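Troubleshooting: if your tokenizer reports a length mismatch, compare your output against this known-good record of 168 residues.
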Amino acid sequence: MIGNDIVDLELAKVQSNWKRKGFLDKIFTINEQNVIHKSLNPAVEIWKLWTRKEAAYKIYNRQTGIRGYFPRKLECSTEEIKSDYSDGFVAIEDETYYTQTFVNEDYVYSIAVTSVQNLKKIVLVHPDKKIIKINDLPYIQDSIKPVSITHHGRFNRIVTLLDSQIFF
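Known-good structure output:
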């Protein structure tokens, strides 16, 4: 399974006041807050953590059917910086999701998968592909392949896995 999330950094500057009292406590664990406070760019670090949590949540929701707002239950850890992205983990209950996060001057984009092998199977879905919803979850219409969709501000992405199967 796959999940993704993107944040338009220009729009996030306008829409979100992450410095307001209680914001970090509401969304991030103590360990995550420590990472944010130690960062050279706390705003970008916040969106890296947030997009990782959101991408993982999309998988968790699809696996369990549980919907809700509980960002502190999803905990990001072990980020390894590569040349143009970073790898990490997000855990919730007994589940661990593997993440890749891409950052540039315009956006932060994270993808989460259920197994590390799936990181090599991620493909972008062409925007012309017809997406349908089945049980409120998105699929490519002609193949009934599950997809993950994200959009924020100027950016959007639809992704799937090369060998993804139907999950109802």
